[in-house]
Amino acid sequence: MEETYSGTFEAALERSRKLEADLTANPQKYKILTGDRPTGMLHIGHLFGSLQNRVRLQNMGVPTYIVIADYQVLTDHDSFENISTYIHNLAIDYLSAGLDPEKFKTYIFPHSHVPELNQLLLPFLTLVTMSELDRNPTVKEEIQAAGLSKINAGMFTYPVHQAADILFCKGNVVPVGKDQLPHLEITRQIARRFNERYAKSQIVFPEPQPLLSKAPMIRGLDGGQKMSKSRNNAIMLSATEDETAKLIKKAKTDGERTITYDPEKRPEVANLLTLISLCTGEEPQAIAERIGDGGGGMLKQQLTDALNEYLRPHRARRAELEKNPDYIRQVLRKGIEQARKEATETLEQVRSVMNMVI
Length: 358
Ligand code: TRP
Hints:
The protein has 15 helices and 7 strands. By secondary structure, it is mainly alpha-helical. Tryptophan (TRP) binds at residues 33-37, 67, 69, 72, 162, 165-166, 174, 176, 180.
């Protein structure tokens, strides 16, 4: 079994299942905080993997805070020219997917615009040791993946910044992928240590729980790895129907003509079947049986039709929102305003327990 900071991955999954049940029963007990880095456009892996889950939680009535982690981009990217474009694009995809700040308690904001949130970083940095930061497995992987020869200190400290992202509003549920579990563990430690060391064991910060997504891992069209823009194997949410058709035509399958659903032995074909299933709700096995000797050509045609139909409303909303940058700005401003209000209250509480009131 694989080890994570907080025990085995299986244990984290089990806790997630229990949390999911309680969220359904008592949505008012919870506050969701999650986020993304603005590093590019989103693809269908993001939609099926995380966006839809956020929409589902929002619709259950759980207040949903989404941080656009713009400062974090600077930890492993040289370029920052396009950050504001990517912030807008993220917001457009969130809204197109159904996150709705008008109807629900949903707030979308870039953390660079919430100074009181960022200020929490200073006390939080005193609650972790250098060696704890140094052994964070996700940070290590990111350093390797980016091939960094010089590593800036922001890279080692961003998990502490992430703790500020989560704790400033006292978020207690964080929907994340497996790679984020070490960061969640640091956040939990910071909350615990803050309460013990600075707050005489009052609960200033709750320890947030990770909520692991139930969505299957979506592979790229090369079939090998997770879908990702940088691996050039993704279908972007903003792609046209023609572009989508062309990409799917080139998707990797295998030499066997008859279509069967076998994720172990035929991962590429299984991935395409899973995608159809996510669009139509039909079981992958049933789709495979129906296609049978129709082969890879028919499989790809069916995926093209299913996906384009499924994405049509998302893409239509996207096109509308793209024409309306003022509305996006208004959504972000509203998110920033709410975030600053909560961050200000939290910072006052923090100053008060730390004897820094003048
Ligand atoms: N580190 C996350 C990622 O790379 C983004 C992120 C920043 C985040 N702050 C967060 C996620 C707070 C959850 C909660 O995807």
